[in-house]
Write a structure and sequence with these properties.
The protein is 73% helix and 0% strand. It is mainly α and 124 residues long.
Amino acid sequence: MPSEVETLCDYVNENWQKPAIHLAAFVLWKLNWIHPFTDGNGRTSRALSYLVLCVRLGVHLPGTNAIPEQIAINKSPYYEALEKADVADSEGCIDVSALEEYLSSLLAKQLLSVLESDTGKPAK
């Protein structure tokens, strides 16, 4: 297990120039795949993924219902995207594109909440 965590960290460090959403998706998938804890793997993966996203972007992301909170509300799309990454891994490649799309949609909702709170109207 320690070598898998080191692999995760190495990937993030060696690919820091990649898009923030890719790194967040990779961390979300890989830490869940490693499953290093007896409890709290999902919560820890979601929190670490969000931290990587914020650090890579260089901002504390505004908005309500942050990505980890949105995932907790409806986990089905999250599990489906994780499974797609697992299938790719079993075929010998890294493909977290389903997670990237999913996280992107959640990020958009989080950021749109800022407009909604400023205007009092749903953002279009």
